[in-house]
């Protein structure tokens, strides 16, 4: 007489062990495929950093000096303006400007000595001169685009030449007296 196998027992069988082992190997194999796939879909660190806001300490920028930096792949000029430059910018009759904006609209109250603008001429996207020592600042003590002759004042406003608009002001805020966050 043949013996029947008892399937109601609590003892693990060799089949149970093989099923558990096969399931574990399958889970590890799936994870080995899915984790790199998800990693490939995420943006790289350079892309993430390019869109992230940047903090800038303005204290090392001497009066009359301008620096250049990149945010989101665009050139930014940050200029520490002198009292003379601020006074000249505020004295301009806004009604005479091609793109009328007052100096107060282009700077932050209480921090008028710092001007933050995109560093791309609004005519054809050239990089205006006037941020480095020895570079011509144009007729209005600001920036000069040598490619087509646009002149900007110390507030980044178009004063002469083919450019239709002022140098745009990027989104920024002061986080301390000499610290800003761009973006």
Can you walk through the features of this model?
- The chain is 26% helix and 23% strand.
- With 183 residues, it is an alpha+beta fold.
- It has 2 domains: 30 residues; 134 residues, Rieske Iron-sulfur Protein (3-layer Sandwich).
- β6 and β7 form a beta hairpin.
- The longest helix has 28 residues.
- The radius of gyration is 31 Å and the shape is elongated.
- The model has no long low-confidence stretch (mean pLDDT 87).
Provide a quick synopsis of the model.
The protein has helices at 14-41, 45-51, 83-91, 103-106, and strands spanning 54-57, 66-71, 74-80, 114-118, 141-145, 150-153, 158-160, 172-176, 179-182. It has 183 residues and is α+β, with helices and mostly antiparallel strands.
Walk me through the topology:
Elements lengths: L13 H28 L3 H7 L2 E4 L8 E6 L2 E7 L2 H9 L11 H4 L7 E5 L22 E5 L4 E4 L4 E3 L11 E5 L2 E4 L1
Q: How many runs of DSSP E, i.e. beta strands?
A: 9
Count of domain modules: 2
Query: Tell me about the biggest sheet?
Result: 3 strands, antiparallel
**Can you tell me the CATH class of the largest domain?**
Mainly Beta
CATH topology of the largest domain: Rieske Iron-sulfur Protein
Key words describing this protein structure:
183 residues, alpha+beta, Rieske Iron-sulfur Protein, 2 domains, 3-stranded antiparallel beta sheet, 4 helices, 9 strands, 26% helix, 23% strand, elongated
């Amino acid at each position: 007489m043949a013996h029947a196998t008892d399937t109601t027992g609590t003892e693990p069988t060799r089949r149970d062990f093989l099923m558990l082992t096969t399931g574990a190997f399958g889970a590890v194999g799936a994870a080995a495929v899915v984790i790199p796939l998800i990693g490939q879909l995420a943006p790289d660190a350079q892309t993430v950093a390019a869109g992230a806001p940047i903090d800038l300490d303005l204290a090392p920028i001497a009066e009359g000096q301008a620096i250049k930096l990149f945010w989101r792949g665009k050139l930014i000029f940050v200029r520490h303006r002198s009292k003379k430059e601020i006074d000249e910018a505020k004295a301009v009759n806004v009604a005479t400007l091609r793109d009328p904006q007052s100096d107060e609209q282009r700077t932050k109250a209480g921090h008028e000595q710092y001007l933050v603008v995109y560093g791309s001429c609004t005519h054809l996207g050239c990089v205006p001169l006037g941020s480095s020592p020895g570079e011509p600042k144009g007729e209005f003590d600001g920036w000069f685009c040598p490619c087509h002759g646009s002149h900007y004042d110390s507030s980044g406003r178009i004063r002469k030449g083919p450019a239709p608009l002022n140098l745009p002001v990027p989104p920024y805020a002061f986080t301390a007296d000499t610290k800003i966050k761009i973006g």
